[in-house]
Amino acid sequence: RDSNFNNNRSCSSRRICGNHDRKSLPTPLERLQASNISSTSKNIILGDSVIRPVNSEDIFDNPSSSQKICIPGLSVLDLDQWLSSEQNYENTENLFVHLGVNSCRQKSINMKVWGKVIEQTKKSFPYAEVHMSSIIPPRGPHSLKKLAQATNASLSAACFKHQVKFINNDKWFTISNGSPRRSLYRDCIHINQKGAYVLASSWKYAL
Hints:
Blueprint: H1 28-33, E1 43-47, E2 66-70, H2 76-83, E3 94-98, H3 101-104, H4 111-124, E4 129-133, H5 142-162, E5 165-167, H6 170-173, H7 193-206
Parallel strand pairs: 1-2, 1-3, 3-4, 4-5
């Protein structure tokens, strides 16, 4: 998990990023480097712990040729470092990237950073249609919601500039007044199985 929420799942004062024990646990980047993404997978889902309950069968017509890479704590900076090592996945047809609040809490991340990662992604997956999935509206404090909105705005602008698909998940996870649909969440930032099906539907709609 990329959160340190207590059993009461309080949304007010918990840290969003996990405190990794560097002596015993690999970092998100190290996990990504060791993830063994298949060069033959037609459809790849890459993201942080939010995507854990998402099922490929709910998105793709050929889930047997799909692969999901779930890396708790993964951020856009980790993805940037991984892509810089010249990855090459020529057989991938669809790539979905979902990075959550671990990215929006890092002040150095802006449209330029997203743009660099998108261009590296297009180079590493030259024949794939790239789908960048927005941060799901968090149920946490107002400050976190604002950060998520700002990060999504930067990501959306970068997707438009670099000509890849931006998937706005807001309408799928909020009610008419903009508040998150509580029934879709396991805690402040993670989704439950119902939420996973909704996220998968959002992605399937984008295909």
